Amino acid sequence: MRIAIIDYGSGNLRSVEKAFERVSSANNSDIMVTSDASELAKATHIVLPGVGAFADCMQGLNNLSGMRDALEQQVTGSRKPFLGICVGMQMLFDTGFEHGEHKGLGWLSGEIRKIERDSSFKIPHMGWNDLHIKSQHPLLDGIKSSDHAYFVHSYHAICKNPSDVRATTDYGGEITAVVASGNIMGTQFHPEKSQEAGLRLIKNFLQIC
Predict the structure, then answer these.
(1) Are strands 82-85 and 93-96 parallel, antiparallel or unpaired?
(2) Closest by alpha carbon to 22, among 200, 209, 189?
(3) Which of 45, 57, 86, 111 is catalytic?
(4) What's the CA gap between 65 and 68, in Å, rounded?
């Protein structure tokens, strides 16, 4: 097994790498943090972390020579398991509206919009929240409603296809927490910071072929 964690300048890579190392230590997996598009052809699993603003993350990804083409080939073409984390999940959608209108990868139908809540709910949404499982997927094996996950975000995914939403959380209203369509998966929360549930999700991801 070879896991490619894409480095496009978004930060937070070390904590993601450490979480994958912890989960995969028993099976001698090779984990590479890479900005080299050619490495994706060698990977069995691809991870796109994300910290910051949607537009900045998309620009960082687009600035990597050949990376968009390699992602399309390996993820939508060869259908390798793919996991987007936080803004990495948001980038899966058609359009983001953080500081303007910006195109995403367009692999899932929907938009990324600012969380609108009354003043009793602080934005960004930050901290531990319960997950609510909407529909099962191998990514969520062994994870149940009421398990906790750690969120840090001000924008959220509004999915056009309800079947893509696998789990939500409640923060003054429903927020998409996990999406999955075939081999394309994403979490709005940070699994690398979500202790037992997060490590279980990473383990599940690595078991998907």
Answers:
(1) unpaired
(2) 200
(3) 86
(4) 8
Express each pLDDT in 9-33 by its tens digit: 987 799 999 999 999 876 778 999 9
Task: Output the domain CATH number for residue 147.
Answer: 3.40.50.880
Strands (E) in 115-203, as ranges, are: 125-130, 132-133, 148-153, 155-159, 165-170, 174-181, 184-187
- Does the pTM surpass 0.90? The reply is yes
Mean pLDDT of the chain: 96
Catalytic-residue membership of 209: no
The tokens 């912890």 sit on which residue?
22
Q: 190 an active-site residue?
A: yes
The pair phi, psi for residue 37, each rounded to 5°, is -60, -30
57 is catalytic: no
Range of the domain at 193: 2-207
Cβ-proximal residues to 119 (8 Å cutoff; 6+ apart), any chain: none
Structural domain total, the chain: 1
